[in-house]
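Session log. Operator J.P. requested a structure for one protein chain; no other inputs attached. Running the standard single-chain path with token output.
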Amino acid sequence: MAIHWVVRHATRSRLTCFPLTIAFFEMINVTDRAVDHLRSLLAEQSAPAGKGLRVQVAKGGCSGMQYEMSLDERHEDDMIVQRDEVHFLIDSESAHYLRNATLDFEDGLTGAGFRIVNPNAARTCGCGTSFEPVPPA
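Structure written below.
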């Protein structure tokens, strides 16, 4: 049986193995600005249903780990944060780095883009795209 991770509310998360809910857990929070911008990106590209923003963490960057984002389709082991009919996709390896983080979209003088505020980061680089994770307790 495949396990699908579904999060339907920003403040209330649940792990779902269809058709049963297994456990509650904390996942990334997504702001209204991030939802609105993703919706407009998907509309501009005439993206097929089910396509969303993949948010993942990979080794690299000046602080050791870096955020990567791309428009993508759901993979089997993805956690899905669903807000207002749009999907944010998080692979299982990235999930613990993004627990309780906030994904926002900013459009300002210094540039526009999705930004992550991550309580799991011990430090971040100046550009905001890489971080050093908090060491395990």
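Operator note: Helices lie at 32-44, 92-98.
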